Amino acid sequence: MENGIPGPVSQVRGFFVLGTFGLGPGFPCRGRTPTHGRPARGKETQMTTRFLVAIALLAGGLGSARAEDLAPPPKPADDTPKAEATEEEKAEEVVVTATRLETPAKQVGSSITVITRKEIEQRKQATVLELLRTVPGVDVVQAGPAGGQSSVFLRGAKSEHTLVLIDGVEMNDPITPGRSFDWAHLAADNIERIEVLRGPQGTLYGSDAIGGVIHIITRKGQGPPRVTLGAEAGSRRTFRETLSVTGSTPVFHYAISTAHFETGGISAAERRDGNREKDGYRNSTCSARLGFSPTENFDVDLIVRCIRGKTENDNFGGPGGDDPNYTSDVEQHFVRAQGRLRLLDGAWEQKFGVSYSDHHRTTRNNPDAAHPLDLERSAYDGQIVRFDWQHNFRLHETNTLTVGLETEQESGKSRYHSDGMWGPYDSAFPRQSVRTNSVYVQDSIALGDRFFATAGFRLDDHEQFGSAFTYRVAPTYVIPETGTRIKGSVGTGFKAPTLYQLYDPVYGNPDLQPEKSRGCDFGVEQDLFGGLVTLDATCFRNRFKNLIDFVFVGWSGSYQNVSEAESKGVELGATVRPSNDLTLRATYTHTDTEDKATGLELLRRARHKASVEANYRLLKATNIHLSAAYIGPRKDLFFDNTTFTSSRVTLGSYVLVSLAVTHDVTKNVQVYGRIENLLDQHYQEVKGYGAPGIGFFTGLRATF
User: Fold this and answer.
1) Number of compact structural domains in the chain
2) What contacts 605, CB < 8 A, 6 or more positions away?
3) Quick one: which of 19, 468, 519, 670 is 20 to 30 A from 126 by CA?
């Protein structure tokens, strides 16, 4: 098993290699997230003018500052960059993804990493993908520069085995062959925190959570009205502008933002292979979170996020991959309306909501001088509608019982047309849909301040293959006297066959069964020197069976349940807080993966991965953040477009170093600079595709 080598040749011209992404056939090369052409060089003046206008607005904010504000005081309390949370704050850190309840992190037995808003502000990175690079157990892969097809692997699982949520709305695309999510277009704007939950999570989240869950939680408006403007410019003709409005009243809160990103890019196909044409990218994102609390026991929220991405592609990676007019376009809409009702003095809490996600992708490739016979068009549309109703019964101070009901319908269609030296080809996937009904039960136990546990099960009824049963147990034991926390979990997960795998007229198989996993982990966390040092170690093991692969029969074939795989390893971490102004963090992940049919390791998962981060607050007004990520050698599959053969290759190791410095000129105005790939490393995350070298970026942010 090569993590889903694509089968339908008609839909994978020039991008066989992307099947190893876990994205499979029909999901175009470098994302093929269409665009209507790159930022033309003639538009540089327009982009520069837009940036200068933004700078002028920010300068106006600086010029209007009072004289007494020109000394750099600390920010308001909610924005003050601190090296690390205090002991009180650390004890009160709350997560929601692991149990679907607001739970103190120290009471969670599952392996979870939280990237906070404070850390996002310190690092100043533009995308969620970049923020995930230092998370233990996570492999990040991108085909080329900004806008390139991007995947995330959790603990060696396939990329489509990660369920991605934003405020509870599923982001996985139902019309991709693997029902995966392309991370290339998810900006880091208006995000409160990111929770990365590792291990199978079928009990609470159903299908797709075989490897884990990544939950992006957006900001909730608080305090008086605030308007924040931001502008950034940097290497490779890169510009970014942001605008946000936040605030709240006793009964209403709001957080609205918009952001635009544009870059001239580099060649998607590796420059050292003779590819010179640069591939640009544009992204516009709008986000809103509105809430209304008419009474103390009832509140409602409306959450919306809209994304448009325009990418320039090359035909494939490696020699001869350049294409001057291959473009792609993506539109994504995520909407959720939710309510919460508390009855019986809070003993019975109900949460209910309806979610809608919409994905639209197109590609366009016209003939050109280098490819006079090539023409390609494609369009992919997918939607997910889900209703969920969760009841939390606080039976006793030691016990909370959670019962939930969900129903979800996914649907999609696609069409593809190409013409070339082999003649025209057309392929259509008519609209298909499938419904899943689910019920889950979880018991959360808290015995004093030492023992905490969750145990639960779930039953999903899929209208095509039938039912799937999953379970999970996650205890943790705290020893306050020694600062020790012992944690562990065991659970199962499943992934339903996708619409394409089930119903494609040529390659589909309606008799497919769900993929399944069983995973366990065990860890110890130890505080030393009164909490100045925290050490943690976790070992894990996952077994995947019934995996779906495309099985070739001559030039055709179909999807079959034929594969098994295993991943196991260890995650180590250390956090040192020498002072309130300085925090040091280090992580190391060792992951062994194996295709049980061939004995080979799985593709694009590094056996060794490490990261180091240092954050220092200087004189209250200046913050310095330095991070370094080491990625060891990985195996990949390279398709040679001259011989039409594929072979396993080894991608070399690399180290990515990033530096971000922020300075508060006044309490309302901040300037910052960021250097990416500080060592100017040359590396590839996908064989044949280039990656950006060193980049310099600077920006301003003003709040009114």
Assistant:
1) 1
2) 139, 153, 156, 567, 591, 593, 634
3) 19
Taking only the tens place, the pLDDT of each residue in 285-297 is 999 999 999 999 9
Q: What is the per-residue pLDDT for 92?
A: 58
| First and final C-alpha spacing in the chain | 55
Please determine, for residue 44, whether its predicted confidence score (pLDDT) is greater than 50. no
Q: 268: phi > 0 → left, psi -120 to 50 → alpha, else beta; which?
A: alpha
pTM (predicted TM-score): 0.89
Give a yes or no: residue 213 inside a domain. yes
Q: Contact, 702 vs 228, CB < 8 A?
A: yes
Cβ atoms 204, 125 nearer than 8 A = no
- Whether 199 is in a domain gets the answer yes
Q: Is the pLDDT score of 91 beyond 50?
A: no
Q: What residue numbers bound the domain in which 84 lies?
A: 9-703
Is 1 part of a structural domain of the chain?
no
CATH number of the domain enclosing 109: 2.40.170.20
585 phi and psi, to 5 degrees?
-135, 145
Q: Which residues contact 396 (CB under 8 A, 6 or more apart)?
A: none
Both tokens of 172, joined, read: 């996985």
Domain assignment present for 684: yes
Residue 675 near residue 696 (C-beta atoms within 8 A): yes
C-beta of residue 568 within 8 angstroms of C-beta of residue 544: no
- Other CB atoms within a 10 A radius of the CB of residue 407 amount to 14
d(CA 373, CA 375): 7
Task: Tell me the longest C-alpha to C-alpha distance in the chain.
Answer: 78
